[in-house]
Amino acid sequence: MGKKLLLVNPGNEDKLNAASVGLFFTFPPPGLAYLAALTPSDWDIRIIDENVEPMTFEDADLVGLTAMTSNAHRAYQISGQYRQRGIKTVMGGIHASFLPDEAIRFVDSVVLGEAESVWKGLLRDFENNRLQSFYRGERVSLENLPRPRNDLYSHRYRIPASVQTSRGCPMDCEFCSVTAFNGRTYRQRPVGEVLDEIEGLERRELFFSDDNILSYGKKAEERAIQLFRGMVDRGLNKHWVSQVGIDFGNNPEVLRWAKKSGCLGVFIGFESSSEESLQHMQKARNLRFGVSRFKETVKRIHSYGIGVHGAFICGSDGDKKDVFQRTTQFILDAQIDSATITILTPLPGTRLYDKMKSEGRLLRTNYPQDWNCYDTTQAVFMPKHMTPDELEEGVYQIYQDLTSRATSLRRAWNSFIQTKNPAVAVIAYSLNRGLNSFVARKYEWVMKERSSGVEHRQVLHPAEDIEKCLVK
What are φ and ψ of residue 278, in 5° steps? Predict the structure, then answer.
């Protein structure tokens, strides 16, 4: 009998996720599928994503876990359950890469960085009882990557496949760990290999999981057109969504071929409609593009029948108490189809985390348990111009104002008018109502935890000096 490998993407400890509230936007993470593809054929492999299916113990020879910061504590819990039974565990991903000395307390081996370059060697070491405590992965070339084992994922995703065409981001925003993990160089897969992978997918819906499928500059635009046009020329007949930068709408040819290749919508990190806030976040690209052009960009993308999901962050040092009303009004005025509003979160590996730590402004430091609060829905630091409670309640109010049933219906109708695409209207309504349900349940869960005494946050009044927020 072959050896069994269990690859796990943990959920969050509150059990709330996109799938639990029926959100349209759920897709398989690509990382574990690539590791499965690199695993020798004599291994029996199972992938479990706790975000769409329950985690129950099943026997294995080796358990591999990946985690971001918000689900790191849950990963440690799962690892502990297996280690108690004498089963070795290995952990990788962004959180373990930036805090390996923490992670190794809870697992047998830690992979730092991109795991593809060390995975086969790690498995050989395991088979020879020489598993090392740490493996340092290199940033791999994206040419000739193996075909990811998407067939091993659950069928419960609303978008059943994710395809990665690039890694890395040159923007280096203060709050983002992508650059530190994947590098500032924009590494691209050959377009032909990407098209071959897409052609092998059975379902029509897919998510391009790049941090920005377009990147920046003339050559990047030409590559995007080549990819989209290739999908049309091969008759792939797909529906897709992806993350893009603010200047996605600059080139009419990019928009034309994106639409023809099946683009239903794009996710754009506006982050803020305030230049002061963007400066504090060091969102240089958006500043150069110009806040005054945001609405024009949305309108142009809409004119090609493509929806726009906006991402906004509240709580930067440039945000005052009027940020909530301003953000709500901007989303409505810009006619953005749906939006995610998150709380600025200092994640390990970012300059923001180092800054907040050095200034004594971190309020959740009972690690590793408190990492589950670093999920962008809770205030884990002392804001400059409001209390943490005011920040959380303000974001909650934005969702209440934007995603009620009546407002969601009006916005969906407007999406149809703007894009002439009924699918965009349906997706917008589904996202808005799903977000309403998710945020309401999340807020209730946080309030319940606090009322039961599970509260480690130190809360001060804005009038008090910021220096008084020092972590004891």
Answer: -60, -35
Q: Coil, helix or strand for 138?
A: coil
pLDDT value at position 36? 96
Rounded to 5°, the CA angle 354-359-362 comes to: 75
Edge-first strand listing for the sheet containing 307-314: 162-163, 205-208, 239-244, 263-271, 307-314, 338-343
pTM above 0.70, yes or no: yes
Backbone angles phi, psi at 89, to 5 degrees: -130, 145
The answer to whether the CB of 443 falls within 8 A of the CB of 400 is no
Instruction: Give residue 455's pLDDT.
Output: 52
Angle between helices 252-260 and 218-233 (to 10 degrees): 20
- What CATH topology corresponds to 3-136? Rossmann fold (3.40.50)
Could you give the 3-state DSSP secondary structure of residue 271? strand
- Which helix (H) or strand (E) segment holds residue 225: the answer is helix 218-233
- The secondary structure element, H or E, covering residue 340 is strand 338-343
Please report the pLDDT score of residue 259 as a whole number: 97
Q: Mean pLDDT in each 10-residue stretch from start to end of the chain (472 residues)?
A: 91 62 66 95 95 89 96 96 97 96 98 95 97 94 90 82 86 79 82 96 90 81 95 96 91 96 96 93 89 96 98 96 97 97 95 96 96 94 96 95 96 97 95 87 71 50 32 26
Contact between residue 248 and residue 254 where contact means Cβ atoms under 8 Å apart: yes
Within the chain, what is the greatest distance between any pair of CA atoms? 66
Distance in angstroms (rounded) separating the CA atoms of residues 182 and 349: 12
Per CATH, the architecture of 150-441 is what? Alpha-Beta Horseshoe (3.80)
Predicted pLDDT at 29: 82
- The pLDDT score that the predictor gives to residue 296 is 96
What is each CA distance from 24 to 27, 235, 430, in whole angstroms? 9, 25, 6
Token pair for 232: 């049309």
- Burial of residue 43 (number of CB atoms within 10 Å: 0-12, 13-18, 19+): middle
> Strand pairing of 62-66 and 307-314?
unpaired
- Please tell me what DSSP assigns to residue 349: T
Specify which residues 339 forms β-bridges with.
310
Domain definitions of the chain by residue range: 3-136, 150-441
CA dist 430 and 416 (Å) reads 14
pLDDT of the residue at 465: 34
Read off the amino acid at residue 65.
L
Structure tokens given for 405: 């049933």
* The two three-digit tokens of residue 125, written as one number: 């070491």
Q: Are strands 166-167 and 187-188 parallel, antiparallel or unpaired?
A: antiparallel
